[in-house]
Amino acid sequence: MRSLATLTAISRTVLKGFTLLFLVAPISLSAQSANPYEGNRAAIRAGGALFGNECATCHNGDATGLNGPDLTQLFALGVSDSRIFRSIRQGVSGSSMPSTEAPDQEIWAMVAWLKSISTVDPFESSGDAEQGREIFNETCMGCHRVSGEGGSLGPDLTRIALVRSRDVLARAIRQPAASVARNYLTVTLVTGSGERVRGLRKGEDAFSIQVMDTNQRLQGYIKADLAELIYEDTSLMPAFNTNRLSDTQLDDLLGYLGSIQAANLP
Ligand code: HEC
Ligand code: HEC
After folding, report:
1. Which ligand lies nearest to the CA atom of residue 187 in the structure?
2. How many distinct structural domains can be found in the chain?
3. Could you read off the pLDDT of 40-83 as tens digits, one per residue?
4. What are phi and psi of 250, to 5 degrees?
5. 104 and 35 share a domain?
6. CATH number at residue 64
7. Is residue 100 part of a domain?
8. pLDDT digits over 12-45, tens only?
9. Cβ-Cβ contacts under 8 Å for 195 (sequence gap 6 or more)
């Protein structure tokens, strides 16, 4: 994991004015579980500035997410301050989320800021989660895994409600082609013998391409042997418009996806 120490050093210089504030009003911060700066306006401002410097490349300046997840809903989902503190301190292993050596008070200031901008209850879904689970198992599980079960053509959705807002999720289901997740480029290739294979590009270099076909078999092809290779500007996921999935069913599905996330919170 990359460390943010250098970035922090830079922003600490930039933010000398803010940092002074912490010197004037020192608080014992070790082993805190409640945020000592919650609701403290100056700390919240400083936290927002720190976040803009160090985290915006991945999370966007307003924390709505870019390469990293939307963070505006963490609190609404019931994630605790101390868990967020820990994630920022330690990073998230297996992801690009780095650890940081920033002082505790800077981290608490960012947590205070995140809380101040957090949206109230974005994932409140009036949907029936149990009903949603049935729809999911019938319609989506062939391609998506949840808690270790399901297909692997599409991304694992266990944590999806934590990293995408409700509206973004609804759009991903209604119009998947509008924003295709990274690493899920759809390709069709025609082999020398005329066989057509449609699937997801999983790897490619100048000479070869690896494709996971719709039967979820991963296969490599030598480009020189192919009759055709087409990069499609669409998602392999079918669009679930209102004919295939009513608004009520969509709401149930979202209720279900939100509930898995809640069940997985430490
Ligand atoms: C290089 C990209 C990157 C940078 C820089 C980055 N993050 Fe992240 N962050 C991520 C990714 C990716 C995740 C999702 C990790 C996962 O759950 O798989 C994440 C997750 C998080 C989470 C949620 C963790 C949880 O417990 O679920 C928080 C909070 C967070 N980041 C805060 C920050 C803060 C604050 C900074 C700046 C100090 C920052 N991030 C910098 C990529 C980044
Ligand atoms: C034929 C396989 C297939 C089926 C069936 C399918 N999906 Fe997908 N899904 C994919 C693929 C492939 C992607 C990645 C490409 C993209 O983003 O569109 C994806 C992406 C998504 C995303 C976006 C994930 C992200 O990281 O933003 C969501 C949400 C999603 N699917 C939900 C569903 C739900 C809910 C259903 C059932 C109603 C469903 N999918 C059915 C293949 C499928």
Report:
1. 2
2. 3
3. 889 999 999 999 999 999 999 999 888 888 898 777 666 788 88
4. -60, -40
5. yes
6. 1.10.760.10
7. yes
8. 544 544 554 454 344 554 445 688 888 888 999 9
9. none
